[in-house]
Amino acid sequence: MRFTAVVFDVDGTLYPNYKMYLASIPTLLTNFGLVNALEAVRIELRKNPEPGDEFHRVQARHLARHLGVTPERAYALVESRIYTRWYKIFRSIKPFPGLVDALEAFQTAGIRLGVLSDFPIRGRLRDLGLDGWWQASLSSEETGYLKPHPESFLRIAACLGVSPQETLYVGNSYRYDVLGAKSAGMAVAHLTSKPHKHGVAEFSFEDYRLLRRFVLGAS
Questions:
Q1: Same domain membership, residue 103 and residue 42
Q2: Are 64 and 102 members of one domain?
Q3: Looking at the structure, do residues 101 and 118 belong to the same domain, yes or no?
Q4: Could you point out which of 41, 84, 119, 136 has its C-alpha 20 to 30 Å from the C-alpha of 219?
Q5: For the chain, what is the largest distance between any 2 Cα atoms, rounded to a whole number of angstroms?
Q6: Mean pLDDT in the chain?
Q7: How many domains does the chain fold into?
């Protein structure tokens, strides 16, 4: 199987999720109600997207209802207490072992590389030490459709100038990454601690050296 492009999820795929969870504990404890409300809103918007308006405004309107505040206040709370604080943590987090070697091998082979995250990209790739590898990066928030809706997967393929059928998507969430990418017609590599359970993914792995071999057919 030959791929023209490989697209990666960010959180839990480029770096171990547990490191982010541990570093996020102070923010979670001091903003427990806000975090829970935001998660509930994003579940709503996954099921019933509203792409006609800018995503953060839509999210703020729904969040305002949960919190009993104005949409402007809800917008400011997410920006200051969630995104801004959370993104500072990336400066202390390192990517998975073997990931950079895999990216270098893919680039050398002429494979186009992309990133698709459910959250804004901003400076996260730079802070992870992974800037400069990508021909395209996209947040599903920019499309108005959170994963697993196929629209964001189709959009990142278009940004890379490839078809979904010649794209491999790499992600750690079965519900959002694997099923979402498959619904868009992509092949999928599932990063999981149970790599013997492929499900609908073409390949499952827990070591980036194995992903490199899968994509390139090399030892």
A1: no
A2: no
A3: yes
A4: 136
A5: 57
A6: 94
A7: 2
Buried b (16+ CB within 10 A) or exposed e, 22-56: ebbeebeeebeebbebbeebbebbbeebeeeeebb
State the Cα–Cα distance between residues 141 and 129, nearest whole angstrom.
23
pLDDT of residue 1: 67
Q: 128-137, 144-153, 189-198: lowest mean pLDDT where?
A: 189-198
Structural domain including 31 reads: 19-90
What one-letter code names the amino acid at 1? Answer: M
Q: Tokens at residue 144, please? A: 């108005």
Rounded Cα distance, 32 and 55, in Å: 22
- Cβ atoms of 113 and 169 within 8 Å: the answer is no
Residue count of the chain: 219
* 184, two tokens: 């868009």
% pLDDT > 90, the chain? 82
Residue 88 has pLDDT above 90, yes or no: no
Answer yes or no: do 61 and 155 share one domain: no
Q: Does 185 lie in the same domain as 165?
A: yes
**What residues contact 32, with CB distance under 8 A and at least 6 apart?**
none
Looking up residue 155, the CATH number of its domain turns out to be 3.40.50.1000
User: Is residue 219 over pLDDT 60?
Assistant: no
Q: How far apart are CA 211 and CA 217, in angstroms?
A: 9
Amino acid (1-letter code) at residue 211: L
| Whether residues 78 and 164 fall in one domain | no
